[in-house]
């Protein structure tokens, strides 16, 4: 699966910042950005999570750069669809953005009642971060490597279980993808959120799960979970100094490469020059040393991108998750 490396675009950020001034003055339609009003960023998830934290970090630094108030508003619900739909219906003037995350591309593959079309109704601005998931195992399961886990699953079909944060979410589809590629039968147990799923993993009520980097870092060294592999395209230096293998290192699983990501989108119809101006400013923010350091501390890689590269990534993700849902025969309850 295509992903956007953190270093690819950072070298171009200074050049992008130079041209920002011309975008701020005007665009082809004669509309200026920013206008004399606040920028609103909608986080379509509850306060306090990593998506909210990253958005507020960026907003804190973006405001002074553009000399405008940047307001973060949480509108949770519907796996991110409610808040996103609010942005879809906002004026396409560059003053309302949504923090986009991987559910924006997994939801359409699994659910059929989404009130907007990602490709038609949203304009990608920039990706800002990527992060792998980690396969974490309850230590009672007698496997110390991913190969041993898969061998155990093949020997005992349907006995092992994997938790997910939600049915149809990224941690669910990741498990189904692994099952497809490895040819194993592991029972899916969906939860309503990461916290209850992790609680049952720690208690030994489920065998494994795909979870956030923070879970592996916090509970791996104490032995409460056993991290087996990450989903990224290469080993991450943020995970045990690069010693944790990737799933794609296993023969037959080379195509399994998955990164959770965060980015920003605007309503469709927002002028291209405005999109470019916003992208340049946000990319300049995430390139600030203090911001990059804080993101790394949270387990994120900086992945600043152009609007075009982000759009290509979203299209590829939508196609990939749709294929996986179809191949696995998944349907929403």
Can you put this structure into words, describing what you see?
- It is a single chain.
- With 333 residues, the protein is α/β, with parallel strands linked by helices.
- It folds into two domains: 10-132 and 260-328, D-Maltodextrin-Binding Protein, domain 2; 134-249, Periplasmic binding protein-like II (D-Maltodextrin-Binding Protein, domain 2).
- Helices cover 41% and strands 18% of the residues.
- The chain has twelve helices and eleven strands.
- It has helices spanning 13-25, 50-66, 81-88, 103-110, 118-121, 146-155, 170-182, 194-203, 213-219, 272-286, 289-297, 307-328; strands at residues 39-43, 70-74, 96-101, 122-132, 134-137, 161-164, 187-190, 208-211, 226-230, 259-267, 301-302.
- It has a six-stranded mixed sheet, with helices on both faces.
- Strand 1 (39-43), helix 2 and strand 2 (70-74) form a beta-alpha-beta unit.
- Helix 1 packs across helix 10.
- It is globular and about 65 Å long.
- Keywords: Signal.
- This is Tripartite tricarboxylate transporter substrate binding protein.
Cα Rg: 20 Å
What is the helix tally? 12
Distance between the termini: 27 Å
For the largest beta-sheet, the strand count, sense and barrel status come to: 6 strands, mixed
Indicate the CATH topology of the largest domain: D-Maltodextrin-Binding Protein, domain 2
Overall strand count: 11
CATH class of the largest domain: Alpha Beta
Which architecture of the largest domain would the CATH scheme give at its second level?
Answer: 3-Layer(aba) Sandwich
Succession of helices and strands: HEHEHEHHEEHEHEHEHEEHHEH
Morphology: globular
Derived from helix and strand composition plus strand pairing, the structural class reads alpha/beta
Query: At the fourth CATH level, what is the homologous superfamily of the largest domain?
Result: Bordetella uptake gene, domain 1
Number of domains: 2
In the sheet with the most strands, the strands line up as 2-1-3-10-4-11
Q: Which regions contain 5 or more consecutive residues with pLDDT less than 50?
A: 1-30
């Amino acid at each position: 699966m295509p992903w956007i490396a953190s270093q690819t675009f950072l070298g171009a950020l200074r050049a992008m910042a130079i041209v920002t001034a011309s975008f701020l003055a005007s665009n082809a339609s004669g509309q200026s950005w920013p206008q004399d009003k606040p920028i609103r960023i909608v986080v379509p998830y509850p306060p306090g999570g990593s998506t909210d934290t990253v958005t507020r970090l960026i907003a804190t630094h973006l405001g002074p750069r553009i000399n405008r108030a940047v307001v973060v508003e949480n509108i949770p619900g519907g796996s991110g669809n409610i808040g996103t739909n609010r942005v879809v219906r906002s004026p396409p003037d560059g003053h309302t953005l949504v923090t986009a995350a991987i559910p924006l591309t997994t939801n359409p593959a699994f659910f059929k009642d989404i009130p907007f079309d990602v490709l038609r109704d949203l304009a990608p601005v920039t990706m800002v971060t990527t992060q792998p998931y980690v396969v974490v195992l309850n230590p009672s399961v007698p496997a110390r490597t991913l190969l041993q886990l898969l061998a155990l699953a093949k020997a005992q079909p349907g006995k092992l279980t994997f938790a997910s944060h939600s049915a149809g979410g990224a941690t669910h589809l990741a498990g189904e993808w692994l099952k497809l590629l490895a040819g194993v039968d592991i029972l899916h147990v969906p939860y309503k959120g990461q916290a209850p799923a992790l609680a049952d993993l720690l208690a030994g009520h489920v065998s494994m799960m795909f979870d956030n980097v923070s879970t592996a870092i916090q509970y791996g060294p104490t032995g409460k979970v056993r991290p087996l592999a990450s989903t990224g395209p290469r080993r991450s230096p943020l995970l045990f100094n690069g010693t944790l293998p990737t799933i794609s290192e296993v023969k037959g699983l080379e195509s399994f490469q998955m990164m959770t990501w965060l980015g920003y989108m605007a309503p469709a119809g927002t002028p291209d020059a405005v999109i470019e101006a916003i992208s340049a400013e946000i990319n300049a923010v995430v390139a600030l040393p203090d911001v990059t350091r804080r993101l790394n501390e949270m387990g994120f890689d900086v992945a600043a991108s152009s609007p075009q590269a982000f759009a290509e990534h979203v299209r590829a993700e939508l196609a990939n998750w749709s294929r996986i849902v179809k191949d696995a025969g998944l349907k929403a309850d």
